[in-house]
Amino acid sequence: MNKPLKQHLIDPEICIRCYTCEMSCPVEAIQHDDNNVVVDASKCDFCMDCIPVCPTGSIDNWRVVAEPYSLEEQYEWMELPEQEEVASDTDGDDAGAVDDQIAALLAQAHSGAGGKAKAPATASKPTINMYNLGKPAEATVTGNYRLTEADSDSDVRLIILDMGAQPFPVLEGQSLGIIPPGTGDDGKAHLPRLYSVSSPRDGERPGYHNISLTVKREPNGLCSNYVCDLKVGDKVKVTGPFGATFLMPSDPEAHLMMICTGTGSAPFRAFTMRRQREYPSLKESLTLVFGARRPGELPYFGPLKKVPENFMAKLFAFSRQEGEPKAYVQDRLRTEGDRVLKLMQDPKGHIYICGLKAMEQGVEQALSDIARGAGLDWTSIRDEMRTDGRYHVETY
Amino acid sequence: MLDLINVSYDTQIPNNVGLSSDKQVLKALEKWHPGYINWWNDLIPQKFQESLVYLRTAVSVDPKGWAKFDYVKMPDYRWGVLLAPQVEDRRIPCGEHYGQPAWQEVPGEYRSLLRRLIVIQGDTEPASVEQQRFLGLTAPSLYDLRNLFQVNVEEGRHLWAMVYLLHKYFGRDGREEADDLLRRQSGSEEAPRMLGAFNEETPDWLSFFMFTYFTDRDGKMQLESLAQSGFDPLSRTCRFMLTEEAHHMFVGETGVGRTIQRTCEAMVEAGIDDPYDTDRIRALGVIDLPTIQKKLNLHYTLSLDLFGQEVSTNAANAFNSGIKGRFMENRIDDDHKLNDATYDVWDFEDGKLVRKSVPALTAINMRLRDDYTKDAAGGVGRWNKIIEKTGVQFEMKLPHEAFHRQIGVFSGKTFAPDGTLVSGAEYDKGITEWLPTRADGDFIQSLMKPCTEPGKYASWIAAPKVGIDNKPGDFEYVKLHMA
Lengths: 396, 483
What we know:
The complex is a heterodimer.
Chain A: E1 5-9, H1 20-24, E2 30-32, E3 37-39, H2 50-53, E4 61-65, H3 71-76, H4 93-109, E5 137-146, E6 156-162, E7 175-179, E8 193-196, E9 210-216, H5 222-228, E10 235-242, E11 255-261, H6 266-278, E12 286-292, H7 301-306, E13 312-318, H8 329-335, H9 337-345, E14 349-355, H10 357-373, H11 378-387, E15 391-395
Helix pairs in contact in A: 8-10
Chain B: H1 2-12, H2 23-43, H3 46-49, E1 52-57, E2 68-73, H4 111-131, H5 142-169, H6 171-183, H7 205-227, H8 232-270, H9 278-282, H10 289-305, H11 313-320, E3 342-349, E4 352-359, H12 364-390, H13 424-434, H14 438-447, E5 478-479
């Protein structure tokens, strides 16, 4: 039996046959007849270029299938077929499809970089997909600490997981999946939710086989509430590791500018700890641009203050600080325009953006304005940096 | 005010044409800009100018960059000059210069022809905004209000695109033409818009949907043929405009579809089987299907007239000179010169309609119109699926091309919608069944009550299946400013 796969499909009831997706597909996976616009499953590589250009939203449809729908079948459709029951073998074939789904999810998270994401040239080789829904790893909770001040309505937590004797090699910037217990309305097990690892590769505590996560409690968030309520000794089902591009360069001369809000700081905490442990005497090689509403809601505000300024420049932006004008990360980028500009033009300069999708546009605009101020074209700089593995976006 | 505009001008106008280093064009556009802003401010009712609208703005021309959604006040919309990326070593795709490198500058011999094409295209863009200026006051939902404004700001951007070409490549003449684009007004006595269809007011939302479906689709076909132009800057401009035009098609197709759906649903709920039971259906606060068919007949046939004469030497010249290609020229498998090819066009012989072979070069308009009809038929099929699903017995049809025509071989003749030639008396008798009457218009007008509560829709139209930018049903697409 073939491994089930995730197939990209277009909803014929909503599609208006403008063919904009077809024009924007770099691998010519999309084609049409007089009736429908269809996607060739053997060509589609989940690059997501077609998603934002669709004026209707019909493009954003996915089915997990054992056998992909052929072009002929798709041409005949008047409406999209329901998701069929996909036979799941006990050896975890079904979970393979979930991995593809996670790959697609990550591709979408990375889409803000404006093209196919690429790992830094000197990044270590990541291990991916070791554990899946059919065969998860089991971790033991060894810590759960609140990172935001008690009076803040934002509850962000550091969760420490011990992986025991199971191998679970993870690099800074990678993610893992947590499977919340129980089943959904359809009676099936919940799908894993992705979280960025916030500890370096040699463990939250060096030499210990433990991994930390930074998780914000979301109202009605099934998994985030589960994770935030975990107690020491609880067992957790984990999948992963996932992600092969949002990684840090091993080159100590590489300068990293890390731009984040909220729990987007997770991978950057890992980056910083890795650098501190490996090259503690480096000077001016990291810049962190970190936004939150107030200092009390900025995860790791205390520990961050202890990182020497000449090891890592820290630029904070607070949008709800009493008595201060509102400042967002893009405002900090603008005030530090010279620094940003220098980094853009440095062949060893890397830019990382992590946080909510909403921050993407403001940051992009600030970078674009800074470039233009010096007579440069941000889009071409960005594309060059990205193809070079020096520009990374992970936003949800 | 002026200073403010000047200071922010360079950063306010997103462009990928190096405007900041092109001082002369920048200066010309700067001079033109205040007139444009005045035009916009005079046009759109004040309370909408101050409302926050959830709009899509192009921030770059790559697939990821041109659909950023956010709340903006329309006067702050970043109208920009955006061209699709230059294709390396692009060649002239048709006509006698076929295969030669595409022109990066205006070829002297085609200067006036090109300028005229650009001016005509440019003239339609602000015209449609003018035609639709009062629709905001009767929007059936915030979702539809947002779609209207998205169409409006993008038509504004398309005007910018054409004005840029005029300023950049046509010197003083171009600047004068650009000024005239703001001077002419839809429906004006002394300075009307250039094409007839763009001087009619868009009186109600069904007309707006029909307009965006049928008339904007003519615009799309014209852009498709200009996107094939051997004059590369025009081609690149139009290619990018097409990506935005797709949204306008979407508004039209789904708008008509949702209107039909609501009518059918209401009929089923009320247990009415006969689609011609007009009074009872109208009493439900929905538009009866025969009236929608009449609107379709009207807008389709008006739009067909925009394609010009079936046999045209102007069109032949434009094609032969490589200024204008055919729909999807690059996918057509022939010599792209049409020296010997023929094409069948409608003609009228001995009182009968006949298909006649003519040199394909002279039938460029007819061919584009055929492609248009094929393209337009797709949506009609979808509308029929909606009707079918509800179980109502009715079918929407495109009328025969001969019906209700003012331009070309059919003009001045009395054809019924099925293409049969009828006497003047029969035509006069049938016309109330074929085209919307004043009473039909009054009825539609009576339904045009604004509905401004998030997630709610006027009685005559169904909610969309999917929100814009995947937003949930009760998303507040327009934060209305209560003036």
